[in-house]
Lipoprotein
Amino acid sequence: MKRMIVLMMCVLILVACTSQRSTNEKKFTDTIKELRDETEIGLKDITPFEWDTVYSFAPYTSKKMVQEIIGFKAKVSETVSEGMPHFVFVKDKEVVCEIIGYPSNLGININTFRSSINSEDNVVFKVRKETDIVYLIEKTTKLTEDEIWNTIKKREWSTLEDGFAGYGIYFYEKNDTKYALSMIYGSGLPVIHTYKSEVIIKDNIISFDFPNDLIVKGEEKEPVRIGLIYKDDILYFGSKNLKEIYKYNPEYNHYDEFIK
Protein backbone atom coordinates (compact mmCIF):
# COMPACT_ATOMS: atom_id res chain seq x y z
CA MET A 1 0.00 0.00 0.00
CA LYS A 2 2.82 2.38 0.93
CA ARG A 3 4.57 1.63 -2.35
CA MET A 4 1.38 2.44 -4.24
CA ILE A 5 1.03 5.76 -2.39
CA VAL A 6 4.65 6.67 -3.10
CA LEU A 7 4.20 5.76 -6.77
CA MET A 8 1.07 7.87 -7.05
CA MET A 9 2.84 10.82 -5.41
CA CYS A 10 5.71 10.51 -7.89
CA VAL A 11 3.28 10.48 -10.80
CA LEU A 12 1.46 13.54 -9.46
CA ILE A 13 4.74 15.41 -8.99
CA LEU A 14 5.83 14.52 -12.54
CA VAL A 15 2.51 15.68 -13.99
CA ALA A 16 2.70 18.93 -12.01
CA CYS A 17 6.26 19.62 -13.19
CA THR A 18 5.37 18.88 -16.81
CA SER A 19 2.34 21.15 -16.58
CA GLN A 20 4.43 23.98 -15.11
CA ARG A 21 7.02 23.59 -17.87
CA SER A 22 4.30 23.82 -20.51
CA THR A 23 2.93 26.93 -18.82
CA ASN A 24 6.39 28.51 -18.72
CA GLU A 25 6.95 27.71 -22.40
CA LYS A 26 3.70 29.39 -23.40
CA LYS A 27 4.37 32.44 -21.23
CA PHE A 28 7.89 32.76 -22.63
CA THR A 29 6.88 32.47 -26.29
CA ASP A 30 3.90 34.79 -25.79
CA THR A 31 6.16 37.39 -24.15
CA ILE A 32 8.59 37.30 -27.08
CA LYS A 33 5.77 37.64 -29.62
CA GLU A 34 4.66 40.86 -27.91
CA LEU A 35 8.10 42.52 -28.14
CA ARG A 36 8.50 45.51 -30.41
CA ASP A 37 10.56 45.21 -33.57
CA GLU A 38 14.16 46.50 -33.50
CA THR A 39 14.24 46.79 -29.70
CA GLU A 40 17.07 45.43 -27.53
CA ILE A 41 16.40 43.47 -24.36
CA GLY A 42 18.13 41.15 -21.90
CA LEU A 43 17.11 37.49 -21.93
CA LYS A 44 16.52 37.53 -18.17
CA ASP A 45 14.12 40.45 -18.56
CA ILE A 46 11.71 38.48 -20.77
CA THR A 47 11.61 35.13 -18.96
CA PRO A 48 8.48 34.99 -16.75
CA PHE A 49 10.09 32.37 -14.49
CA GLU A 50 13.32 31.97 -12.55
CA TRP A 51 16.27 30.14 -14.10
CA ASP A 52 20.00 29.68 -13.49
CA THR A 53 21.23 28.48 -16.89
CA VAL A 54 19.76 27.98 -20.34
CA TYR A 55 21.39 25.41 -22.64
CA SER A 56 21.29 25.42 -26.44
CA PHE A 57 21.43 22.10 -28.30
CA ALA A 58 22.03 21.30 -31.94
CA PRO A 59 19.65 19.11 -33.96
CA TYR A 60 19.91 15.36 -33.28
CA THR A 61 21.47 15.82 -29.81
CA SER A 62 20.31 12.71 -27.94
CA LYS A 63 18.36 12.80 -24.68
CA LYS A 64 21.27 11.10 -22.98
CA MET A 65 23.68 13.79 -24.15
CA VAL A 66 21.28 16.54 -23.06
CA GLN A 67 21.13 15.00 -19.59
CA GLU A 68 24.91 14.72 -19.42
CA ILE A 69 25.35 18.37 -20.35
CA ILE A 70 22.76 19.75 -17.91
CA GLY A 71 24.20 17.47 -15.22
CA PHE A 72 21.18 15.49 -14.07
CA LYS A 73 18.47 13.14 -15.29
CA ALA A 74 15.28 14.82 -16.43
CA LYS A 75 12.40 14.40 -18.84
CA VAL A 76 13.72 16.12 -21.97
CA SER A 77 13.10 15.97 -25.69
CA GLU A 78 15.39 15.68 -28.70
CA THR A 79 15.17 17.28 -32.13
CA VAL A 80 14.60 15.09 -35.17
CA SER A 81 15.45 17.46 -38.01
CA GLU A 82 17.60 20.39 -39.06
CA GLY A 83 16.31 23.84 -38.29
CA MET A 84 14.73 22.90 -34.95
CA PRO A 85 16.07 25.03 -32.09
CA HIS A 86 16.27 23.36 -28.69
CA PHE A 87 16.70 25.32 -25.47
CA VAL A 88 16.51 23.95 -21.93
CA PHE A 89 16.12 26.32 -18.96
CA VAL A 90 17.36 24.93 -15.64
CA LYS A 91 16.80 26.14 -12.06
CA ASP A 92 18.28 24.32 -9.05
CA LYS A 93 18.82 21.12 -11.06
CA GLU A 94 15.29 21.12 -12.41
CA VAL A 95 14.13 21.75 -15.96
CA VAL A 96 11.70 24.67 -15.68
CA CYS A 97 11.18 25.28 -19.40
CA GLU A 98 12.02 23.58 -22.69
CA ILE A 99 11.72 25.33 -26.06
CA ILE A 100 11.86 22.90 -28.97
CA GLY A 101 10.32 22.77 -32.44
CA TYR A 102 10.29 24.49 -35.80
CA PRO A 103 10.30 28.30 -35.58
CA SER A 104 7.30 28.35 -37.94
CA ASN A 105 5.33 26.38 -35.33
CA LEU A 106 6.70 28.13 -32.25
CA GLY A 107 6.44 31.60 -33.72
CA ILE A 108 9.87 32.48 -32.29
CA ASN A 109 13.54 31.71 -32.86
CA ILE A 110 16.62 32.48 -30.76
CA ASN A 111 20.00 32.99 -32.42
CA THR A 112 23.04 32.77 -30.15
CA PHE A 113 26.64 31.60 -30.51
CA ARG A 114 26.67 30.20 -26.99
CA SER A 115 26.03 26.63 -25.92
CA SER A 116 24.85 27.94 -22.54
CA ILE A 117 23.92 31.25 -20.91
CA ASN A 118 23.88 31.98 -17.19
CA SER A 119 21.15 34.27 -15.88
CA GLU A 120 23.72 36.70 -14.47
CA ASP A 121 25.49 37.04 -17.84
CA ASN A 122 23.08 39.82 -18.84
CA VAL A 123 23.17 38.76 -22.50
CA VAL A 124 21.36 41.25 -24.73
CA PHE A 125 19.32 40.32 -27.80
CA LYS A 126 17.91 42.39 -30.62
CA VAL A 127 14.31 41.78 -31.66
CA ARG A 128 13.53 41.25 -35.33
CA LYS A 129 9.91 40.65 -36.28
CA GLU A 130 8.94 39.00 -39.54
CA THR A 131 5.54 37.90 -40.81
CA ASP A 132 5.17 34.74 -38.73
CA ILE A 133 8.33 34.58 -36.60
CA VAL A 134 9.91 36.83 -33.97
CA TYR A 135 13.71 36.47 -33.84
CA LEU A 136 15.92 37.14 -30.85
CA ILE A 137 19.42 37.79 -32.18
CA GLU A 138 22.31 38.01 -29.75
CA LYS A 139 24.12 41.31 -30.08
CA THR A 140 27.60 40.90 -31.54
CA THR A 141 30.16 43.06 -33.25
CA LYS A 142 28.11 44.17 -36.22
CA LEU A 143 29.58 43.85 -39.69
CA THR A 144 28.11 45.48 -42.75
CA GLU A 145 26.42 43.37 -45.40
CA ASP A 146 29.28 44.04 -47.82
CA GLU A 147 31.92 43.10 -45.22
CA ILE A 148 30.25 39.76 -44.56
CA TRP A 149 29.65 39.02 -48.24
CA ASN A 150 33.21 39.87 -49.30
CA THR A 151 34.49 37.50 -46.61
CA ILE A 152 32.33 34.47 -47.38
CA LYS A 153 32.01 34.60 -51.18
CA LYS A 154 34.07 32.43 -53.55
CA ARG A 155 34.89 30.07 -50.69
CA GLU A 156 33.51 26.64 -49.95
CA TRP A 157 32.15 26.19 -46.44
CA SER A 158 31.55 22.68 -45.22
CA THR A 159 30.78 20.46 -42.22
CA LEU A 160 33.06 17.83 -43.70
CA GLU A 161 35.57 16.41 -41.22
CA ASP A 162 36.30 13.02 -42.75
CA GLY A 163 35.80 13.80 -46.44
CA PHE A 164 32.90 11.36 -46.84
CA ALA A 165 29.63 12.93 -45.70
CA GLY A 166 28.24 16.27 -44.68
CA TYR A 167 26.82 19.57 -45.88
CA GLY A 168 28.52 22.25 -47.93
CA ILE A 169 27.83 25.74 -49.25
CA TYR A 170 29.49 27.86 -51.91
CA PHE A 171 28.68 31.58 -52.10
CA TYR A 172 29.11 33.46 -55.36
CA GLU A 173 27.79 36.43 -57.30
CA LYS A 174 26.34 36.63 -60.80
CA ASN A 175 24.76 39.65 -62.51
CA ASP A 176 24.88 41.56 -59.21
CA THR A 177 22.83 38.87 -57.46
CA LYS A 178 24.14 36.93 -54.46
CA TYR A 179 23.73 33.15 -54.56
CA ALA A 180 24.36 30.17 -52.31
CA LEU A 181 24.89 26.78 -53.93
CA SER A 182 24.10 24.21 -51.25
CA MET A 183 25.20 20.60 -51.37
CA ILE A 184 24.50 17.39 -49.50
CA TYR A 185 27.44 14.99 -49.69
CA GLY A 186 26.80 11.26 -49.57
CA SER A 187 28.97 8.58 -48.04
CA GLY A 188 31.12 7.25 -50.87
CA LEU A 189 29.50 9.66 -53.37
CA PRO A 190 30.65 13.17 -54.32
CA VAL A 191 27.16 14.71 -54.43
CA ILE A 192 23.64 13.63 -53.48
CA HIS A 193 21.83 16.89 -54.09
CA THR A 194 22.49 20.55 -54.85
CA TYR A 195 20.27 23.59 -54.66
CA LYS A 196 20.82 27.19 -55.78
CA SER A 197 19.17 30.04 -53.90
CA GLU A 198 19.46 33.79 -53.63
CA VAL A 199 21.15 35.06 -50.46
CA ILE A 200 19.82 37.73 -48.12
CA ILE A 201 22.12 39.22 -45.46
CA LYS A 202 20.52 41.14 -42.61
CA ASP A 203 21.53 41.69 -38.97
CA ASN A 204 24.58 39.40 -39.40
CA ILE A 205 22.33 36.54 -40.55
CA ILE A 206 23.02 34.98 -43.95
CA SER A 207 19.75 33.35 -45.04
CA PHE A 208 19.07 31.15 -48.06
CA ASP A 209 17.23 27.98 -49.11
CA PHE A 210 18.86 24.63 -48.37
CA PRO A 211 17.86 21.18 -49.71
CA ASN A 212 15.73 19.29 -47.21
CA ASP A 213 17.75 16.56 -45.49
CA LEU A 214 14.97 14.02 -46.17
CA ILE A 215 16.11 14.02 -49.78
CA VAL A 216 18.83 11.55 -48.81
CA LYS A 217 16.03 9.07 -48.09
CA GLY A 218 14.69 9.42 -51.60
CA GLU A 219 11.81 11.70 -50.67
CA GLU A 220 11.75 14.92 -52.68
CA LYS A 221 10.85 17.71 -50.26
CA GLU A 222 10.68 21.46 -50.56
CA PRO A 223 13.93 23.18 -49.50
CA VAL A 224 14.05 24.75 -46.04
CA ARG A 225 15.10 28.30 -45.26
CA ILE A 226 18.14 28.45 -42.99
CA GLY A 227 20.20 31.25 -41.49
CA LEU A 228 23.90 31.18 -40.69
CA ILE A 229 25.83 33.65 -38.55
CA TYR A 230 29.38 34.67 -39.48
CA LYS A 231 31.89 35.07 -36.65
CA ASP A 232 35.67 34.58 -36.51
CA ASP A 233 35.78 32.96 -39.96
CA ILE A 234 33.22 30.31 -39.04
CA LEU A 235 29.55 30.09 -40.01
CA TYR A 236 27.40 29.11 -37.03
CA PHE A 237 23.87 27.78 -37.04
CA GLY A 238 22.72 28.71 -33.55
CA SER A 239 25.28 26.67 -31.60
CA LYS A 240 28.87 25.52 -31.44
CA ASN A 241 28.14 21.81 -31.87
CA LEU A 242 30.20 20.21 -34.62
CA LYS A 243 27.25 19.31 -36.87
CA GLU A 244 26.23 22.95 -36.96
CA ILE A 245 29.56 24.58 -37.83
CA TYR A 246 30.54 25.41 -41.38
CA LYS A 247 34.29 25.88 -41.79
CA TYR A 248 36.24 27.17 -44.75
CA ASN A 249 37.79 24.20 -46.56
CA PRO A 250 40.40 25.37 -49.09
CA GLU A 251 41.20 21.78 -50.14
CA TYR A 252 37.67 21.00 -51.35
CA ASN A 253 36.57 22.03 -54.84
CA HIS A 254 33.22 20.29 -55.20
CA TYR A 255 31.51 23.29 -56.75
CA ASP A 256 33.71 23.91 -59.77
CA GLU A 257 31.59 21.73 -62.05
CA PHE A 258 28.37 23.49 -60.99
CA ILE A 259 29.53 27.12 -61.36
CA LYS A 260 29.72 27.99 -65.05
Q: What stands out?
A: DSSP finds four helices and 17 strands in the chain. The longest helix spans residues 2-33. The two ends are 77 Å apart (CA to CA).
